[in-house]
Design a protein that fits this description.
InterPro entries: SAM-dependent_MTases_sf. By secondary structure, the chain is an alpha/beta fold. 37% of the residues lie in helices and 14% in strands. It is built from ten helices and nine strands.
Length: 276
Amino acid sequence: MSLPLNRPRPMLTAKREVVAWIGRALQRLAASPSVDANAVLDASKLGFEFRRQMIDGYLRDHYGLTVQSGPFQGMAYIAEAAGSLYGPKILGTYELELAHIFGQLERYETFVDVGCAEGYFAVGALVAAPHLRTLAFDLDARARQLCAALAETNEVAGRLQIGDLCRPEDLARLASPKTLIMIDVEGAETSLLGSTPAEALSDCDVVVETHYTSAGCTLEFLHAYFSATHDLTIIEQTARDPSAFPPLMALGQVDRFMAQWEGRGPEPWIFAQARR
């Protein structure tokens, strides 16, 4: 068996304006009369973002705009992400820890996505489950526009309703049997759920991404909130396997990692299943 020892290293390219932007930032840093640790940190972040954008372009060249794996495999995507990284969504490894939940959508009739961003889950669920309807919420107007565009791209807009603010009374009203609720609101889950009686959600399943806030990790609050009404599973983050994607194996170790990197801290998810 011959080994591909002489395979060429792939060329990663970036937009010209991104290169110019980073170049100007580095010039300002070099001209500074003293070394500012924060400025050096900012410059390193620019370099990281530069490399990440090149990897996104590399993935797009190989895979186009089609999700490659996971519960939403085959979903047609758009060339923009809102508030999260693009590459893992094209690979289908984004929040892969939740794949077992979204692989059982036949159990549900309605999916409520609070903090939907551009609709990876909100629209992906509709693509994976033709019987399902989704109600998606996001405070960001651009995110809502992208979510609508993603639904149109996949011809599922007729089963999607998009809103801005999900209030406690909205959540309570939507929490019926055969409903799956997903909440990812960057720490505001304590405010939303703290104003919603846990009993109001007792008939539905809820998955929440936890976050660190000034008051600590929201996991403790969520565990106490759901413990009387739901069976709880803490879902920890897991490593990704780049070998599932042959184009990634042509990259170096750092680039393979960055292609699937989601920019997360250590926070887990909590899956609260109704005691039916």
